[in-house]
Amino acid sequence: MSAWIGHTNQKLYQARLLLQQSEQARPDALAQALEVSAIYHIHDAYLCYLHELAEMVQYSGAVVSLSQLLDSASLVTGEMQELKALEQDAFSWLATLLSLANDSLQGQSGANKMATDASLIAVAQPAESPVYQCYQRLVELIERQRENRQES
Questions:
Q1: What angle do CA 24, 26, 30 make, to 5 degrees?
Q2: Is the pTM of this model over 0.70?
Q3: Which of 7, 35, 75, 96 is buried most, with the most CB atoms less than 10 Å from its CB?
Q4: How many CA atoms within 13 Å lie on the side-chain side of 114?
């Protein structure tokens, strides 16, 4: 079994714990901090999953993005193509995740966007939160793609 599978699962577990804590956190600043932390873990889980896919095609270099993997790998799998389509669709959950992660890394402008989003998120039910939706969709995608590989 690939070590990257364990890393991916660990990051997803940590993100789930942070999201559960953010549902119960008071004050709102704490809930926002927990959600931002969850974004980083979900993004890290995505990168770990890209490493899983890289191992499948015997690519051993560092993977920092899907586009870099697609450019460097000798074989492009159906899983990679599905992720590429999701990244390119500006309305997809994956594009939302990458945007949230990028905005969080941008410093002040990202912090302002997250502060605005946090007030919207606070009104929504936890399961309706964009961060939670990204988490749930990533988990579903990874599980489905792993199952499909085992059946092949």
A1: 100
A2: yes
A3: 35
A4: 27
